[in-house]
Amino acid sequence: MIRFDNVSKSYPKQSRPALRDVSLDISKGEFVFLVGSSGSGKSTFMRLILREERASHGQVHVLGKDLAKLSNWKVPQMRRQLGTVFQDFRLLPNKSVADNVAFAQEVIGRPRGEIKKAVPQVLELVGLGGKEDRMPGELSGGEQQRVAIARAFVNRPALLIADEPTGNLDPQTSVGIMKLLDRINRTGTTVIMATHDQQIVDQMRKRVIELEQGRLVRDQSRGVYGYQH
Ligand SMILES: Nc1ncnc2c1ncn2[C@@H]1O[C@H](COP(=O)(O)OP(=O)(O)OP(=O)(O)O)[C@@H](O)[C@H]1O
What we know:
Elements: E1 2-9, E2 19-26, E3 31-35, H1 42-49, E4 57-62, E5 65-66, H2 75-79, E6 82-86, H3 97-106, H4 112-125, H5 141-153, E7 159-163, H6 171-186, E8 190-194, H7 198-204, E9 207-212, E10 215-220
C-alpha cells in the first residue's frame, strides 16, 4: 500500500534534511504509529504520502503508484482514496455536523441520494447519531474530532492519515477516539497515526515506527512509545 525506497527530503534553505534515507513498507490493513520528537520528520513523512511535498531522493509509492510519476492532474484522484484527520479538527465552522460530512462527498461528485444515506450512517458509526444539525462550536473537542473522522471516513478511504488526532483532547476522550480509529482500521482501512501520546501507543500495541532527526531508527510490531522527550 505504501512503500518508501531510500527516501530523503530536504527543504530549501535548511541545513539538514527533514527525512534521510527512509525505507519501509506498510501493507493494506495495518495500523501504524509514527513517533519521534518534535522536528523528527513525522509531518514531512505524511506530507510525502499525500503528495503535498515531493521526495528529494528515492521513491514513494502509494496505492501502487510512484508519486514522482503521477501527473499533477491525477493527484486529486489519488487523494480521494486517502482520508486525513488533524489535531485541530479543521471543521467548517458555519456548516452543521451533517453538512461538514456531506461536503466531503459533494466535492467528489457523489449523487445526492447517496449522500443522504451515507451521512447519517457514518455519524452513527462515530457515535454522533442525533447530532446531525449541531454546529461544530456547540460540540466538545472529542465530538468535533468524531465529526472530522466521519468526514475522513465517509468516502471509505483505503488509507487514513491522522496527525496527532488526540493532541487537543483529555486522556479519557482520547481513548474513545482511539477505539473509533481501531474500529475503522478493522473495516480494512489502513491507519497511520503520528502521535506524542505515550499512554495510547503503549496501550494499543500496534506497529511503531520511530523517526529521529529524519532517520528511521525503530520499526517494531506490537511496539511501545519508547523514546524520552
Ligand atoms: N515547509 C518547510 N520548510 C522548511 N523546513 C521545514 C518545513 N517543514 C518542516 N521543516 C523542517 O523539517 C524538519 C522536520 O519537520 P517535521 O514537521 O516533519 O517534524 P515533526 O516530527 O512532524 O514535528 P512535530 O512533532 O513538531 O510536528 C524540521 O527541522 C523542520 O524545521
